[in-house]
Amino acid sequence: MAAVVISAMHMSTGVDFEMPAELAKPLRRADDLTKCLVGCASSAFNSTPLPTIPPEETGIFYGTSFGPLETNFRFLDTLLDDGEGQVSPTLFSHSVHNAAAGYLARIFTIHGPAITLTTYTWPFLTALNQAVLAISSGCIRRALVATAEMPSPLLADAGRQLAGSQFADGPSGAVTWIIDRLPEERKGKQLAIKHLEIDETPCDAAVLLTRSGEVWSCNGRADEQTTGVLDHAFVLTDKIEKTIDGQMNKEFVWSIKAPFGQARLALEMIKG
Amino acid sequence: MAQPENKKSSAIITGMGCISAAGRNVEEHYFAIEQGMQNCQQVPAWLFNTQQAYPVYAASQDALTETGHKLLADVGADVSSHRLGRTAQLMLSAVAEAMDMAGLTIKDLQKKRVGVAIGTTVGCAFNNEDYYRAFRQGDHPGLNPVIDYLNSNLAYLLQNVLGIKGPSLVVTNACASGTDAIGIAGSWISADLCDIVIAGGADELSRIAYNGFISLQLTDLLPCRPFDRDRQGLNLGEGAGIVFLEKGEDVVKRRISSLGWVLGYGVCADAWHPTAPHPEGQGMVRAVKVAAEKAGTGLEFDLINAHGTATRANDVAETNALAAFLVGHEETPIISTKGITGHTLGAAGGIETILTISALRRGFTRGTTGCVTVDPDFRIAPRHQSQKVELSGKIGLSQSLAFGGGNSALILEAC
User: Fold this and answer.
1) B279 is in which domain, residue-wise?
2) In terms of domains, do B172 and B200 share one?
3) Which of A95, A99, A111 sits opposite B268 (nearest CB)?
4) Is residue B245 domain-shared with residue B272, that is, in the same domain?
5) Rounded mean pLDDT of chain B?
């Protein structure tokens, strides 16, 4: 089976993301979720060292828990305030979960699979898992793996009611990785995905929102608490970036445990 | 039964279940096709209140069939114990029928690696208007609607109800979700990630999606007329279509009948427009070619169950795509089944996969219900409702297009 390597990664928080000027026009009708995700993907693509891959050999795997929840509420506002027959078609078309993936495909000219997956556990890892499978099985050569969430006052209010002061409204924003089938032309060390395992367990639904009891660890070091559904993607990406900066020579093992399951990702440096 | 060498890694369909306005099981759906039934009506008051005149294809009020109730009873649960929403009840009804057809029990499933891949659109949205109205007024309404929303992730819920373990995900690729879920499930079987996958789609009618499609001016005041010269748009429907997929060697061991194979799956983005398909159907052509390459079938089919929503843009793009890859095979029977089910959004791909396999197994289908006169501007002619189609072969194509520029194709073979 072909090795799958991480070629680029980028993180944007929901408050500080920068929008390249050339994206202003194509994103003029987009919601904040899409803008943040596209901006983040743009940075990842700009930092990938590989030559351009044919559009049909590149795919999008976007995982999210809540997707365009707030856009759906803005659409609902028009229905409740203005009544039937007066609702906004633009808001409706952006309230569909895969609207953001459609923007990614258009803006970055991606003609391969564009798959949006929804899960409350670890949407980024779920998307990564499918992307690795698509590359390993020879369907595509490159994948943009993405996750994004925006702040939701409604969910934050529910979280505070459920967990009181223990509730931490985690970060919003986006995380994007570019992963590739190990290309022959690339020389030097490559960070390869060796193993990814996700094991979900049924649990009290409230825990999916409060994330209580969710902890992660890296290379066997002490567990640390996460905050919010995006946190797994942020801390994982941050840990990998810092480890690479530290000239990783050994296997990198990152794991996460929660009442709703566990997941484990192993990476290793290989010679391209 | 030995597995043919060229299909050893393909997923075998051993069970199918569906529910929609056309019926409460697979047999009733096929009867509806044979009779050309169109159970399209004004939105029932028990579903939601509306002043709009656009009719819909509503399933019956009791979304959980007897088989579905029995399945829940077998796991010691009922509708209230899981506070199951309508989409979940539709899904469980289809799961129960498919599970019976596959000859599997809950104990069988709990001993195996069982994946769950379900497509939906409405089923993953928080659409509780009363809660949202109260929240935006500054109230703190009871949290049950939020808890129910968190519990309603269809894959997570199904794993929970059945007590099964394996990979799971919900595909939210708009109207192609059900097709993509089955395609992904097939890839899990091929990669030996699980022994069985429960796959398909489910969606309920909602006031929000109903008004959304009206705002896009994509709806018809009459029952939909796919591929017809005078078509005006779609009518929303609701339902679920679920298949059980298994590995070939397990089917041989269990000595059960196979219903068919998922031979190939292709999914390609148009990269064109937020809601409209590429006018030449370029993404659809690519998706079919990818699926055909995996299936090893070439581009010859005995039946094509098209997306056929009856919107002006979809039907033009889709027939353009079909004309592009059916060169030399223009007589291939092309139908749409949305005239009997309505557009069931995330469920459509699941239901249409089942209707394709059923037609191929029976060797017969009717033309497109609702289509009286095929649009003469099309570059290829789908079958109209008065045509009876004898099917001599077993290879079918079921295709879906979606908002966001998604195009998905499944190549199926009936047994």
Assistant:
1) 261-414
2) yes
3) A111
4) no
5) 95
Q: Which of B224, B259, B294 is at the close of a domain?
A: B259
pLDDT tens profile A181-228: 987 766 778 899 999 999 998 888 889 999 999 999 998 887 788 888
Residue B24 has what DSSP assignment? S
Interface with chain A: mutation pick from B156, B157, B180, B284, highest number of A CBs within 10 Å: B156
Contacts of A42-46 with CB under 8 Å at 24 or more apart are: A42/A107, A42/A108, A43/A10, A43/A12, A43/A176, A44/A8, A44/A9, A44/A10, A44/A144, A44/A176, A44/A177, A44/A178, A45/A8, A45/A108, A45/A144, A45/A178
Chain A contact set for B267 (CB, 8 A): 112-115
ipTM: 0.96
CATH number at B332 reads 3.40.47.10
Looking at the structure, tell me whether residues B189 and B250 fall in a common domain.
yes
Contact A137 B191 (CB under 8 A): yes
**B221 and B325, same structural domain?**
no
The pLDDT tens digits of the residues spanning B300-332 come to 999 999 999 999 999 999 999 999 999 999 999
Is B64 a member of any domain? yes
Q: How far is B156 from chain A (nearest CA, A)?
A: 7
| A30 vs B contacts (CB less than 8 Å) | none
Q: Do A209 and B150 touch (CB under 8 A)?
A: yes
Look up residue B296 and give its DSSP letter: T
- Domains of chain A, first to last: 4-271 (3.40.47.10)
B-chain CB neighbours of A92 within 8 Å are: 211-213, 215-216
> Does the CB of A67 have a partner CB in chain B at under 8 Å?
yes
Where a domain ends, among B259, B276, B296?
A: B259
Interface A-B, measured as beta-carbon pairs within 8 A, has a size of 191
Active site residues of B: 175, 307, 343
Give helix A153-163 / helix B129-136 axis angle, nearest 10°: 90
Residue B342, in any domain of the structure: yes
Is the CB of B403 less than 8 angstroms away from the CB of A98? yes
Q: Which residue has the higher pLDDT, B123 or B103?
A: B103
- Whether B215 and B309 map to the same domain: the answer is no
Q: CA A91, CA A113: separation in Å to the nearest integer?
A: 25
